[in-house]
Design a protein that fits this description.
The protein has one domain (2-183): Uracil-DNA Glycosylase, subunit E (3-Layer(aba) Sandwich), CATH 3.40.470.10. Mean pLDDT is 84; it is low at 166-187. It has helices spanning 9-14, 21-32, 65-82, 92-99, 105-108, 127-132, 136-157, 178-183; strands at 2-4, 42-44, 51-54, 57-60, 86-90, 112-114, 120-124. The strands form two sheets. A five-stranded mixed beta sheet has the order 2-1-5-7-6, sandwiched between helices. A two-stranded antiparallel ribbon has the order 3-4. Helix 3 packs across helix 4 (92-99). Helices cover 44% and strands 14% of the residues. With 187 residues, it is α/β, with parallel strands linked by helices.
């Protein structure tokens, strides 16, 4: 299970998480980590898009603490239905929603914490933060770290790596029965 912070403009308009630029980057990094994005539950900690209108554009604004707390019950329901072995928290808002810890993200990145639901939460960078990063070195380092964190979470969950041979479906995660592969994310 991967939890982001809140829907972006595209996500809000389409009604699905991670379909905008950050979602595209996330899927690329999941593929680099050999994780089938179709086998992972993707959601957000906050369920609405907070924005400031600027002409015809809707500019993203970070959710505040109260908005995160207000949406926590919904995230709790998703956690109780999915029952993941590991949750990957992308960004500070997701980390706070899952753990109740609002400490800075940097020192926590790559660390596993106990979530409010009692399960493991791996803290990582949000792909939108990587996209907004102006320093090329920092951008590349954070991209590599997020890929490492995705792979680490997949190992904890028992995911099989994707095969690189597109002509063969034998032994690939996508060749597994959907219900069987979903169980790998559950206890």
């Amino acid at each position: 299970m991967i939890v982001g912070e809140q829907p972006g403009d595209r996500e809000d308009l389409e009604g699905r998480p991670f379909v905008g630029p950050a979602g595209q980057l996330l899927r690329v990094l999941m593929a680099e980590a050999q994780v089938d994005a179709g086998q992972v539950w993707l959601t957000n900690a906050v369920k609405h898009f907070k924005f400031a209108p600027r002409g015809k554009q809707r500019l993203h604004q970070n959710p505040d603490r109260q908005e995160i707390l207000h949406c926590r019950w919904w995230l709790g329901l998703e956690l109780s239905f999915i029952r993941p072995r590991m949750v990957l928290a992308l960004g500070a808002s997701a980390a706070f929603a899952l753990t109740g810890n609002d400490a800075p993200l940097g020192p926590r990145r790559g660390q596993t914490e106990t979530g409010l639901h009692g399960g493991q939460v791996l803290i990582s960078w949000h792909p939108s933060g990587i996209l907004r990063q102006t320093d090329t070195g920092t951008k590349m380092r954070r991209r590599a770290e997020l890929t490492e964190d995705i792979a680490a979470a997949a190992r904890v969950c028992g995911f099989l790596p994707l095969r690189t041979d597109p002509t063969s479906s034998v032994g690939t995660a996508s060749s597994l029965d959907r219900s069987l592969s979903t169980v790998s994310w559950r206890e």
